[in-house]
Specification:
This protein is mostly helical. It is built from 8 helices and no strands.
């Protein structure tokens, strides 16, 4: 669902307002870069792809109603552009058979917890995320870090909304089981 701020920015960009474009770029460039890194692409390719996405947005004369969720639109555009750039680099490979290793390191916790607890919590979360498959990690990050809906996640991962719900549910179950196992190992004497 689109925020009022994003709706205003889109309207400003549609009307050629450079300040709206600069504000939009500043708001989303870091989160898009983080998503590209999580997909496993090289930093320079990600930077190029982000520039391409924003140039397309700037040069594309669209009706504001064409984009119902700006964040989702940017994520989808970036992923598609990265795939296109990847295709160009491996012309003879079949892209459908390529599996990208989605990874993430927890760094968004800087403002949430105190420094002495941060490292312990990061290690626990990273251990839980490492217990997931690549697609499960990507789905969890899209849902809980980037707050995308199941329909949007399904579209990004090329699956049905029902399958995206199931994927996230299984990932959450796997992390709960991993956390329980960790608890048993640390606190129970066998």
């Amino acid at each position: 669902e689109q925020t009022m701020e994003d709706h205003i920015l889109i309207r400003g960009i549609t009307n050629g307002n450079e300040t709206s474009f600069a504000t939009l770029y500043s708001k989303y460039v870091d989160v898009l870069f983080s998503y590209g890194v999580g997909l496993g692409y090289e930093r320079e390719i990600i930077k190029d792809a982000i520039q391409d996405v924003f140039l397309k947005l700037l040069n594309h004369k669209f009706a504001g109603s064409e984009i119902s969720n700006l964040k989702f639109y940017l994520f989808r555009s970036l992923k598609n552009r990265l795939i296109d750039l990847h295709k160009n680099r491996i012309i003879n490979d079949e892209l459908d058979n390529c599996e990208f290793d989605f990874s993430i390191k927890v760094s968004v916790l800087d403002d949430i917890i105190e420094a002495e607890n941060k490292k312990i919590l990061e290690q626990r979360i990273n251990k839980l995320l490492d217990s997931l498959t690549s697609r499960q990690r990507e789905a969890i990050v899209l849902r809980y870090v980037h707050e995308l809906g199941y329909d949007e996640i399904a579209s990004l991962l090329d699956m049905t909304p029902k399958a995206s719900r199931k994927l996230i549910s299984r990932a959450m179950d796997r992390m709960r089981n991993q956390e329980l196992l960790l608890f048993l190992i640390l606190f129970c004497k066998f």
